[in-house]
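Tokens in:
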């Protein structure tokens, strides 16, 4: 694996020609996704600036153009009219000011009337490499290009660590105020969220206080990507706690969770109705973000990075890595989020193929369970061995997913086997297979499981128990692989 110097990782991109050879090198990789958003070159990570504005869904994501490495981060821009077909738009935000000289880090979008705004963390480092995070903003012009404000909205607080980032902006009509939630870490190295407020969108911001979440005072060592939304009258807080292990999550120290409760902006208190829950039970799911301006009080739209900080993946050998999960529609049911791919995904289906033990590289697989314990193996070898195995234990009402049988194994020190507890008996699974990822929606999205997977040419068989019915549809490509910088 390549050892990157700081100078290589933080090199400034001056011209598209500097990465054209990288694009030509990876564009025909067997692991390039067909219907998932992915980087044109290099590394993609956190989704940013996700929202609906004037008939278009805009999505940005963290992008390091030079290879599968975390270095100088840009916002890369893609857009869609239906959340299914995506077009590459090129660089959205570049690290080109004093305040973001070492990266335009994560943030969110806000649509107001005819105007679209982006809020992000400017990652500044001085000659001694001391970090200063600034909360910055840009207004998107009629040409759909962001124009940054001349100065940040505010800088970091000295009574917290340097980890203050990922602004999420909301407007609360009853208060006639805007609020920004910032992921943070206090000086005791505990995860926190900070709240700023203003009566004006682009000026007058002041520190309101620390978000209080009773019972979560010692939960994690940093809260990345805090995000709040109201669904059917309930507030839902999602965030990514770091630097901690959690039950059932192997040796991973990076997670994505949600809490259902109520937010009081007078006291800056989020009161949970119950304990935290995992957004996704899979190996590779992080930095989830709600879309802005969805326009339906009974649902939210969410997208996340298929990947985890500190983990490594086989396509790093090809100098690229990462993708976004399918955009998901979220609703609340009995105090839990129910997730499903956004409406209309069936339009990508080709003609159903016979269930004869062979998987396409790009497909939707529907599994129907007749009751009892059950076993399914996807991506097996020709003799039926290996693969991604899925075992359902009816008594415990738990699905166990195991990827140790694949030829390409990765992150073995973190986890290769994880459980997905269910809230009701297993009846159905919808499995979305792309060339280097698998997303499982159990019982119409009561629980989900996302993983990267890198099958080789001899690993496209499958087997299912007698009590499991299988249907398979090949899926058409829907994301642009065009070279746009």
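Residues out:
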């Amino acid at each position: 694996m390549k050892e990157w110097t700081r100078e290589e990782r933080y090199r400034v991109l001056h011209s598209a020609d500097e990465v054209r050879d990288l694009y030509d090198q990876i564009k025909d990789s067997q692991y390039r996704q067909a219907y998932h958003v992915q980087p044109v070159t290099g590394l993609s990570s956190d989704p940013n600036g996700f929202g609906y504005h004037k008939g278009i869904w805009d999505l940005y994501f963290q992008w390091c153009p030079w290879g599968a490495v975390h270095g100088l981060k840009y916002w890369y821009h893609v857009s869609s009219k239906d959340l299914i077909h995506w077009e590459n738009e090129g660089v959205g935000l570049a690290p080109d000011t004093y305040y973001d000289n070492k990266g335009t880090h994560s943030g969110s979008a806000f649509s107001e009337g005819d105007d679209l705004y982006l809020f992000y963390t400017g990652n500044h480092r001085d000659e001694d490499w001391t970090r200063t995070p600034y909360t910055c903003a840009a207004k998107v012009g009629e040409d759909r290009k962001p124009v940054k404000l001349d100065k940040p909205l505010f800088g970091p607080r000295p009574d917290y660590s340097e980890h203050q980032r990922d602004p999420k902006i909301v407007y609360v009509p009853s208060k006639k105020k805007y609020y920004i939630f910032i992921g943070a870490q206090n000086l005791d190295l505990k995860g926190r969220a900070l709240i700023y407020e203003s009566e004006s969108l682009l000026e007058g911001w002041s520190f309101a206080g620390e978000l209080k979440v009773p019972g979560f005072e010692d939960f994690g060592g940093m809260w990345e990507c805090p995000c709040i939304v109201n669904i059917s009258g309930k507030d839902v807080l999602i965030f990514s706690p770091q630097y901690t292990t959690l039950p059932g999550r192997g040796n991973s120290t990076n997670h994505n969770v949600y809490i259902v409760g109520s937010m009081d902006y007078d006291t800056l208190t989020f009161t949970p109705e119950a304990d935290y829950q995992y957004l996704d039970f899979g190996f590779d799911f992080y930095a989830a973000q709600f879309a802005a301006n969805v326009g339906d009080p009974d649902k939210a739209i969410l997208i996340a990075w298929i990947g985890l900080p500190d983990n490594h993946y086989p396509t790093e050998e090809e100098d690229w890595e990462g993708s976004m999960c399918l955009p998901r529609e979220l609703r609340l049911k009995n105090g839990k989020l129910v997730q499903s791919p956004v409406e209309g995904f069936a339009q990508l289906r080709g003609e159903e193929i016979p269930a004869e033990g062979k998987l396409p590289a790009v497909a939707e697989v529907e599994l129907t369970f007749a009751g009892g314990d059950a076993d399914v193996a996807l991506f097996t070898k020709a003799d039926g061995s290996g693969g991604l195995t899925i075992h359902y234990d009816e008594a415990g009402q738990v699905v166990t997913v195991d990827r140790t049988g694949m030829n390409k194994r990765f992150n073995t020190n973190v986890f290769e086997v994880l459980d997905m507890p269910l809230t009701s008996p297993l009846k159905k699974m919808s499995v979305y297979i792309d060339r280097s990822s698998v997303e499982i929606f159990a019982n119409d999205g009561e629980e989900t499981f996302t993983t990267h997977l890198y099958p080789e040419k001899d690993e496209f068989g499958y087997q299912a128990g007698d009590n499991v019915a299988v249907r398979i549809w090949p899926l058409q490509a829907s994301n642009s692989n065009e070279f746009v910088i």
